[in-house]
Design a protein that fits this description.
By secondary structure, the protein is α/β, with parallel strands linked by helices. It is built from 9 helices and 8 strands. The strands form 2 sheets. Strands 2-6-1-7-8 form a 5-stranded parallel sheet. A 3-stranded antiparallel sheet has the order 3-4-5, with helices on one face. The longest helix is centred in the C-terminal third of the chain and has 17 residues. The chain is globular, with a radius of gyration of 17 Å. It binds 2'-deoxycytidine-5'-monophosphate.
């Protein structure tokens, strides 16, 4: 059974790559960021203080999460309600990054993430897949791109989804703020595992990144 971890900062293309790879190999997919986003959304909906670790832990323990996946998209259900769009909002991402710094919350979500590992294999994407959640994984990739390129991709994505009023400077500032918080927290900070393969996708297309990854796999 193969376990493939893809870690890296937001906007590096992990989600797309992980989904395409899972589809190609017929493996299960863990979008761990979505789990933090769902917890954040539930907290916002319940008016829960984002620093109240105990309240967040009990909220997280009771979450009923379901992912419905195909090659094009992932539908995310929270207590049966489709929250696919809501979890992608900027506000939810920021809240996810805030609560993700809390050690007890991370601990509460650990087994839930590990439960995704099943035959014939798993593609896990996030910040600490290769370092904390699946340190035993045989394949670990750390996918990065410059903050400017990640902001450019985000702007493109927003334009394609029909958004107007896009503030490019704010998007870049938000990406940098999130990087800073994800990399500098004490628990499970964003960093490559010692045995991870680094891939800088700044100048690479999705197909090229997929080629680099598949060329390293001996499945
Ligand atoms: O990958 P993403 O943008 O959907 O993740 C949202 C936030 O969740 C991110 O800012 C940090 C946090 N996160 C984390 O701490 N650990 C993970 N394995 C995945 C995400």
């Amino acid at each position: 059974m193969a376990l493939i971890c893809i870690d890296g900062p937001s906007g590096a293309g992990k989600g797309t790559i992980a989904r395409l790879l899972a589809d190609k190999l017929g493996y299960a997919l863990l979008d761990s960021g979505a789990i933090y986003r769902i917890a954040a959304l539930a907290a916002l909906k319940h008016g829960c203080d984002l620093n109240d670790e105990a309240a967040l832990v009990s909220l997280a323990a009771a979450l009923d999460i379901e992912f419905k996946i195909d090659a094009q998209q992932t539908q995310t259900l929270l207590n049966g309600e489709d929250v696919s769009k809501a979890i992608r909002e900027e506000q939810t991402g920021m809240a996810a990054s805030t609560i993700a710094a809390l050690p007890a919350l991370r601990q509460a979500l650990l087994e839930r993430q590990r439960a995704f590992n099943r035959a014939p294999g798993l593609i896990a994407d996030g910040r600490d897949m290769g370092t904390v959640v699946f340190p035993e994984a045989e394949y670990k990739f750390f996918l990065t791109a410059s903050a400017e390129e990640r902001a450019r991709r985000r702007v493109l994505q927003l334009q394609q989804s029909g958004a107007n009023d896009i503030d490019q400077d704010k998007i870049l500032a938000d990406i940098k703020a999130r990087d800073d918080r994800d990399m500098n927290r004490a628990t499970a900070p964003l960093k490559p595992a010692a045995d991870a393969e680094l891939i800088d996708s700044t100048e690479l297309s999705i197909v090229q990144v997929l080629d680099v990854i598949t060329s390293k796999l001996t499945l």
